Batch of 2 targets.
Target 1
Amino acid sequence: MAYAALVLACGVTLWSAGDLNLGRNPWPNLARTLADFAHPSFLDAWWGNPRLEYRSEDGTLLRVEDRRVVERSFLLALARGCWVTLQIATLGSLLAALMALPLALLAARNLGAPRPLAMAARAVLGAARAVHTLVFGLLLVGIVGLGPMAGILAIALHSMGTSGKLQAEAIEALDMAAVDAVRATGAGPLQVFFHGVWPAVLPQWLGSHLYVWEFNIRDSTVLGLIGAGGLGLLISEATSLFQWARLATLLIAVVLLVAAFDALSRHLRQRLL
Amino acid sequence: MSAVNAMSAVQIDGLQVAAGGRVLLQVDHLRVAPGERVVVVGPNGAGKSTLLRCLSGFAVPSSGRVEVLSRTLAPQALSSPALRALRADVGQVLQGLHLVARLTVLQNTLVGALGRLQGAPAVRSWWHRFPPAEVDAAQQALQAVGLAGRADDRVDRLSGGERQKVAMARLLLQRPLLVLADEPTASLDPAAAQAACALLRQAAESATLISIVHDPALVPLLGSRVLGLRGGLIVFDGPALALDAAVLSGLYGPETAPGAG
């Protein structure tokens, strides 16, 4: 009931603000975009026009370009973009998992960390999760400048929240009796961690790390939009120049990248758990 | 050892453990001499496990005095290092054994040595590197319990009886002065339970042994003195031979029956 009322309220306010329409001529726009998408630009690298002539209004020849050469250099840039995206996601996720571990140990309700510390750790993890990667990215671009480093740190800060929550849950699902048995031998806190906690949470830790990593591959493809490097930079270029054919190429690359990584992580998960 | 021998292994005075407004355990006076073999019996919820947890510092009494191996656990709580030093001397076999599932048989056995490692060996133990002497001792302990060939198997691939043996090997390696065993034979078949009791006696050969069991048939295997608990009170304290049907029905019977002893 409350949900239906909420949906209704959303619809009515949108309509009364005059935003409930699809623009002036959606169908021709859609048709044009689809036509461009149907011919992704990477095909030009092999079958492109070798002598594309650009002429001004009065017919003078402005310049001639070989579409094949242009597209091949674009594909090279695309490959570099994919690599930077992978770099950002990989290093960012690893940094996130490492930063999250001590916080997760404090935040887990069953390990008995001092209350103020546990609350602080949970607050930090919650805040990190609440702020989107893109927002962290915008902040960090202002601090460390344009480039992949801003992306890595943005991913690390946001994913620290997700990763920490998953890790804390893994620790909370732990067999505490086994941990107590290690503690009962007079082992110190770090010995208890390495003999009782770590071996038991390792599979979940790896599983959550893979999940966050996978997620970040997707997330880091858009980080370039705000100047944090990677594929997003090319995407923002293509969209601002209305080069839908190139955008099609880029999206195909993103889908392939994500699908390849998903398959890889599924494979790893089966091997590790 | 001689200093410990001169005193009690366990000395309790005016102990009370309460949780949520309910008294779980009340022991006015209890003394266990070094080397004594004590079996604790009683129905579920009688406070048996709570008594054992007080002796290892896992439960904190609301009031009273607890001394274990001439170290005072209550009313003043021990500092963390002192508590760890005490626990290194107190071997525990808990209900359900509690091995670390993803570690191997040998690694689980070596957990028994953690408490006595100091300095660099303690740090090296973080990545499961132990002094060769400890590894040899662990192998001997596994030999003693009959698991010599299984050292590198993960414990979650073992049967219940084999896990029991790993817990015993861990206890053997720990070489404690006081052994606390909370239903060490739970979920074992009768033959395996008898074998487990024999191993437990072996592990506690030169130590004091306090164990909790439910099966009256196992009582004479584990001790000569019996403590009967009911409703958080010690209602029977006598030789194992005196534990007859009347005493047992007093312990486990309906609430209205008068407690024995």
Target 2
Amino acid sequence: MSKSFRQSQSFLHTWSGLLLGWVLFVIFVAGTMAFWREGLNRWMRPEVARIEQPYTVLAGAQRFLQSKALDAKGWSIAMPNERVAGAQVYWQPQPKPGKDEGRRGRRGRRDNQALIGADGLPTIARETRGGDFFYRFHFDLHYMPVIWARWLVGVAALAMLVAILSGIVTHKKIFKDFFTLRRAKGQRSWLDGHNATAVLTLPFHLMITYTGLVTLMAMLMPWAVVANYADPDALYDQLFPRFEAQERTGMPMPLTDIGGVVRDAERRLDGPVGSINVAEPGDAAATITVTRAASTMLSSRTPSLTYRGTDGALLWQSPAPGGASVTAGAMIGLHAGRFADYGLRWLYFLCGIGGTLMVASGLVLWTVKRREKLPDPERPHFGFRLVEWLNIAVVGGFPLGIAAMFWANRLLPLALKGRADWEILALFIAWGLALVAASGLRATRAWVVLLGATGALLATIPVYNLWATPRGLVATAMQGDFVLAGIDCALVVVGAGFLATAWRVASYRPAPKRARKRPTAAAQATTPGLQVMEPAE
Amino acid sequence: MTTATGSSHANAWRRRGDMTLRIVAAVPLGYGVSSLWAMALARLLPGDRAEAAVAATLVAFALCAGAAMWAFAARSGWRAFWTLALAGILAGSLTWMSISASGRL
Amino acid sequence: MNVLCLLSAITTFVLFGLATDQHHQKRLGTRLFARRKKILRCTAWLGVVVCFVLAFAAQGDVYGAIFWLGALSFGAAAAFLFLNLAPGGADKPRRAK
């Protein structure tokens, strides 16, 4: 590989990584947390009990929907299991005459949903977005139109892909330096840390970035579809086939027991059910569409069956998808990791943390490298100050916001109106304060304050849990509820990590600059720790 | 990147121009060329039209990344620009000919 | 079986690490000669294969490859942290054997 190729890619790596690095950081943090989405859903609602009897919950969900929304256009029930907080149900009211709902209608509005708990009744729990917030945030961000957010996230993901590929090209001795970690050597130590977090979990980073792009492909790269289809609906009907929607007959007839339908479907699909959609419930034309759980196969595009609503007779079975569809589904499945059992999920989580550290260390490395070259260290140029400020504000501020959100989840009054939105506001208020700290304090002090505060806030939540909630670490461990216990433990460990980092920053004393001897060839042979620097761009 | 003799002022502008060409080649042009190749692949891949479109879309992101890397690896900014543009024109022509011949669904 | 797979990955990468001059010197105290380097490397590659087999045994056909890559990353990270951060090991080369 020629030197100038490597140098050109080094330049590209630095800039494609830096320009959107802060967006990538928050995506990685939220996305990594989203691997424990269902666990966090439960953790942030300590009132809800673990689900032991999914079919009881399902029957309760049907009873609830029949009493609440019998004349709805459609119901959607997420099949409960022992990992989730409850059965999430949505209902879509009949469209008002003269209003076009569009192909997929409008779902997920706050007043048309409920969570059915272990006893089959709507849960009485604190209102919170739970783990779903982090999942949504990592591609929809917040406080902005969803399409803008997804474009920003999509462009960032493409920049990430370019950064990874150019990083591999640039990394001169990727195998030779695999285990190298030079300590207390300033920019070389940061480089080794950045290289380690990047290379050791490289398969994951390549996979998660590329598959992340695939999840947004309909928006980012619609042109191949445009080339083949004048009417995109024709494509969607083929890729996402469904039973022809029936008009409501106006003849009311009771809906059959959904539980019975689900049991039959699980037999036919040879796997657990993930979601149930009822169209035109309470009518003679009602249909029940049952889809296999995404957690049971690699592809996210799981097969489904449609039954007649009145008597549970099978009406339609989804056809087997083609090769490219299966590949796309597998890629999306790999990204979401819904198929992963606990062992594999921990590996995903640890790799995600590695990715987060990779992005953060890259951002910091940029400033460390250039600080050594500043003509006047007391008055750096604007670009340097901007990057340093953003580093502190985002890498220091966003985790602080999350810690604040967790505390808000614990402390806000249960009856507060719009409580879920207030929790999220707490995140952004804390993040805003971090921005102020980054602007007002000296860099080192700002880092220490933000990292230390984050660490202290995170590590003390499990203590509060022990004292004030029925789901403290002792209780959950004794009940064998290892997800909740694991979250508490992880909070302590991560909090301790932040505190340790703050301590390191606070006690860092840069070594006095000595005149550096040029390493001789003999010296290099016998002291392999003394490496020659990567070429600067 | 070549450095020419002459005033350093002219050199600075030459370098800025070179960099601008590369950035334009990498991002707007690179995306455009990748999209055109995605369209061409969707037309030319055999088999079911929906599957071909999906397959072409899956590959397109690798093309985007490759275009960006080429934009900076090429010997000069201008070379990056015209090579990518040529690749785009080729893909566009193939697509146009295919659509003119057999239309869209 | 998951745990066995992870352990094999950790062993593999510790061996790879010990096959580098720096870490061999630090942990085992003696200089790394070509023959020992070759033995360590071969054994480590054998470990990669063992990890592959165990991964498929643990997770089945579809997820085996995914678990294998994840286990290798885990093993690499664990070996990296141990070799670089665990205390002990001689820093000065003793008299070569």
